[in-house]
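Duplicate of #3305? Posting structure anyway:
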């Protein structure tokens, strides 16, 4: 279904419920790897995908299953777009699971090559968890001469180390239980080009919509337990969102593009599009799921 605006999508979904999830929402900032992003989500098993598109970006012609994709025309490059769109969806699908991402981003959860997202979420709910914390893992092309926008599925690389965390605190400086701010990747290595508020790499990968829940501007959820990295009694499953977005931005923004002629360093390693590789690097956690 095509919607001319986010308001039209909201009004239509209010009259006709969206059904059962899990749902994915893709915020397309441009056309880069839009088809591969949508196909990846389709293969993971999302039942319906909501795609926000600016007016100057077209829906790809070849998709794995176009019938499950709703397009919503919206100026996605404006500040606040993510929160407005995700919070709209939260209100429309209480109790259902949601994933949101941008184009050229790819969700990985443990064993996702053999198991669909519904199976992973069934396990998470058995553990009485209603969110899966995600870490944005920056991807970049091996050779920027051949791939000047830093995007290449075939030669994708990532940082094998250089990730760290610090205690997350409330405004009154009290420590938040089982919450950390995570850093690393290109945001860490090129931090002089990244605003401080944009340097964290943690964000909710999957979460269950609930009444009153909102996504905040800093990509945390308004229910604090949903921002925790584990339950109180053992490690919980986490996920990775493998993303070309930062590399693409560093190569396109006027303030940084002339300072970046390569993203490779001695800790770069080729990305094999494997959940096992991400787990071995410590970039996501299977928890008790085997």
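Output from current build:
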């Amino acid at each position: 279904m095509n919607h001319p605006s986010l308001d039209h999508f909201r009004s239509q979904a209010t009259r006709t419920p969206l059904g059962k999830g899990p749902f994915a929402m893709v915020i397309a900032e441009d056309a880069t790897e839009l088809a591969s992003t949508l196909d990846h989500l389709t293969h993971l098993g999302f039942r319906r995908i909501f795609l926000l598109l600016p007016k100057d970006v077209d829906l790809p012609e070849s998709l794995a299953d176009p019938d499950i994709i709703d397009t919503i025309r919206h100026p996605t490059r404006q500040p606040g777009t993510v929160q407005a769109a995700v919070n709209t969806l939260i209100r429309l699908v209480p109790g259902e699971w949601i994933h949101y991402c941008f184009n050229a981003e790819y969700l990985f959860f443990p064993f996702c090559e053999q198991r669909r997202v519904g199976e992973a979420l069934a396990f998470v709910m058995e553990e009485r968890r209603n969110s899966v914390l995600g870490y944005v893992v920056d991807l970049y092309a091996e050779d920027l001469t051949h791939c000047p926008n830093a995007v290449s599925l075939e030669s994708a690389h990532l940082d094998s180390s250089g990730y760290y965390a610090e205690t997350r605190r409330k405004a009154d400086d009290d420590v938040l239980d089982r919450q950390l701010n995570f850093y690393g990747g290109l945001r860490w290595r090129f931090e002089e080009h990244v605003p401080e508020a944009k340097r964290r790499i943690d964000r909710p990968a999957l979460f269950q919509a609930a009444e009153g829940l909102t996504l905040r501007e800093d990509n945390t959820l308004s229910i604090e337990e949903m921002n925790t990295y584990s339950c109180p009694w053992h490690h919980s499953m986490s996920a990775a969102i493998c993303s070309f977005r930062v590399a693409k931005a560093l190569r396109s923004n006027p303030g940084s593009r002339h300072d970046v002629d390569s993203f490779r360093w001695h800790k770069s390693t080729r990305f094999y599009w494997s959940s096992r590789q991400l787990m071995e690097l410590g970039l996501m956690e299977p928890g008790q799921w085997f």
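Confirmed duplicate; merging threads. The first strand starts at residue 2 and ends at 3. Residues 105-290 form one domain.
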